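Thanks for the sequence, V.! I ran Chitin deacetylase right away. Repeating your input here for the record:
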Amino acid sequence: MKLPSTILAASLAVAFAHDSNHDQHIPKLVGGRRLLAGLESRGGRASPHQRDTAKVPQFATKDDGGLQSRADQDTKCGPGVGSCASDLCCSAEGWCGTGTIYCAAPDCQMNYGPGCDANKKPSGADTSDVARPKLGSVLYGGAGIYDCVKKGDIALTFDDGPYIYTADLLDKLKSYGAKATFFITGNNNGKGMINNPSSIYPAVLKRMHAEGHQIASHTWSHQNASQLTNTQYTNQMVWNEIALNSVLGFFPTYMRPPYSICEKNCQTILSNLGYHVIYFDLDTAGYLNDDASMIQTSKDIWDEAIDGSDPAKKSFLQIEHDIHYQTVYNLTDYILTSLFANGYRAVTVGECLGDPSSNWYRTGPKGSGGTTSTTTIITKTTTSAAPTRTAVSTDGTCGNGVTCAGTRWGSCCSASGLCGVGSEYCSVSKGCQPAWGTCDGTATSTKTSTLYKDPKLTSPPPPPATTTKPTSTPTGPAVSQDGACGPDVGQTCSGSSFGTCCSPAGKCSSNTISCLAILGCQKDYGSCI
Ligand SMILES: *[C@@H]1O[C@H](CO)[C@@H](O)[C@H](O)[C@H]1NC(C)=O
Ligand SMILES: *[C@@H]1O[C@H](CO)[C@@H](O)[C@H](O)[C@H]1NC(C)=O
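Predicted structure:
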């Protein structure tokens, strides 16, 4: 029964749109999303995306057969347990390992897994010293912006990309003559760094800009700001700047906080870094309805707000996510058709706020950076006053008055604010922070290209150890009866009731991310996209 949740969803969206108490706004948004997710679950259709970002669906557990099975990876990690060894990732379920399902942001536990994608800094010239004058009249930092100001404007925005659907989305926007704003996440969901020159993303980013769309930041790896130190949060912003600047030669002044979470510290950091903090007043929750049988719910939310509304009196700042298939290939057509039919303009966020495009970006330093600078980490304390005394880390994080000296994790404080031992933590050339622990100054030369080699994209998991294609042998793998698949169990997902693609972890699934060939979907044991 779709109707009740549709009505409730629509009224929630309208409630967001009309809520003028912005200080109270953030918890309500989060709560609203939870509520929607809960409704879907109670309806017997548990949403695969209960957060505003795609999750890597197969959590790494000790029993999953493992993408990698080296003995040193079968170690537990996490709060109260400890960190993984240098270069290993701590999965959402608390196991050390490597590969996408352990390392992908935002789920990899970055405080316990040095190798988490969230802790990998992109290569490129450091942007932290760029002057950040606050030009124009649009609010910087603070409680943020929820509404467009120019009547008749609708700012369509897309978060969490770029992703494999984004180029098609650009085609679509072009065919309608629509402009949009992309809130870019630097490395999430195992897609690899956006400035990886061997990926599709640099070209997609350049094209966005060339075709008149606005490029904004959605942080480096989509972490929950409430769980980050000031140093970690600053890195989340500056690392995304470095990656964007290395592709475009500039970086944005507009950003949107992941999960709509940005409390006082975060607001202050963003103000100091010269960012406009952008939320939204219309959310069709396309990310919750990523299925042909559910996306109508998002269309109904849109219609509730737009159909019959008066463009002479109204404007909207709308949110979608270009990492979801139905959003890109179904909902967007519906939205664009309706938008123009109702007499609105499809513009960027900057334009709907009346901000000249010269204020949307800051020119960054030239050069690839990586090789020369040893001071690419952010050591400036941008928020609270300098601490008066140094505390010893109790949770393995460091910086801002918290030292690693004498802790069980190790005495070096890494560039990303984690205590540990070994060169990833202690080498000055990798950004070891001498103020908050010990560092060895005798840095060995670092290979400049290592940061670009994202293992997810350049070396997919090894193919199944069969010499003949299962489908061409008279006795191919049996159809999975228990959801397990792959060479170890000799079972295929083709024809299985658990989903038709075989995930990297050897589970039948119909989830988009599990089915993506570039992320290691096992094509010999099911279908992949
Ligand atoms: C973000 O972190 C805070 C503090 O740990 C937590 O209460 C909140 O539920 C988290 N929100 C999300 C969306 O993860
Ligand atoms: C698009 O959405 C409609 C519901 O609004 C659905 O019936 C249709 O199957 C979807 N199309 C595709 C190609 O998924």
